[in-house]
Design goal:
The chain is α+β, with helices and mostly antiparallel strands. The chain contains 5 helices and 5 strands. The strands form 2 sheets. Strands 1-3-2 form a 3-stranded antiparallel β-sheet, with helices on one face. It is elongated.
C-alpha cells in the first residue's frame, strides 16, 4: 500500500478485516471483486474478501485460538457452544458446512444436527428452521418417493435432506 499503515482509517478497519479473513492491499492492485475503501475522497486501501469456503476455515481456526485447544478435544458442552456460535455466524449455509464442522469437532454429522436441534428450544423431534414449511417430524416415516430413511423437505427448495430441512 502506498499510504502509511498507521493511518487512523487503516487502524480502524484492520481488526475487522482480520476477523473476516480478508486481506488489505493497495487500491491500485484491486480486482473487480475487491472492495475499495475511500477516506476523505481518496482511495486509501482495498480489501480482498476471502472465498466463502475459506471463511468457515478461518472461523474454525479463530475458535480454536479462543478455546486454546483443537476443537475435537473440547468437552460436549463446549462443542455445543461452538455449534451455536457457528450457526449464528452462518456456517451451516455454506455447502458441506455441517461436514466441515463435524470433522473439526471430531463428531458425526448426526451429532452436529443434534446439537443444532438441542439449541433450538423447539419441541423434541420438530424441524426447527425458522419459517420452515417442513411438515415432517424426525419421527415420521419418510415419504414413499424418498430414498432410505431421508426426509423430504417440502420447503421452498424441495430437496431431499437428512435428517430434516435444517440443512438448507
Amino acid at each position: 500500500m502506498t499510504e502509511p499503515r498507521d493511518h487512523p482509517f487503516v487502524a480502524a478497519v484492520k481488526p475487522l478485516v482480520d476477523a473476516m479473513g480478508g486481506e488489505l492491499m493497495d487500491p491500485a492492485l484491486a480486482q473487480p471483486d475487491d472492495v475499495v475503501l475511500t477516506w476523505e475522497g481518496q482511495d486509501l486501501l482495498a480489501v480482498r474478501l476471502p472465498q466463502l469456503s475459506d471463511s468457515l476455515d478461518h472461523i474454525l481456526a479463530a475458535l480454536e485460538r479462543r478455546y486454546g485447544v483443537p476443537l475435537a478435544q473440547l468437552d460436549r458442552k463446549s462443542k455445543q457452544d461452538v455449534v451455536r456460535i457457528l450457526e449464528a455466524r452462518g456456517a451451516f449455509s455454506v455447502r458441506h458446512g455441517v461436514e466441515t464442522v463435524a470433522g473439526a469437532l471430531g463428531v458425526s454429522r448426526f451429532t452436529v444436527y443434534n446439537y443444532l436441534n438441542r439449541d433450538s428450544g423447539t419441541p423434541k423431534g420438530r424441524a426447527r428452521a425458522a419459517g420452515s414449511e417442513c411438515s415432517l417430524t424426525h419421527g415420521d416415516e419418510p415419504p414413499p418417493n424418498s430414498p432410505g430413511r431421508r426426509l423430504l423437505c417440502t420447503g421452498s427448495f424441495n430437496k431431499v435432506l437428512t435428517p430434516c430441512c435444517r440443512g438448507r
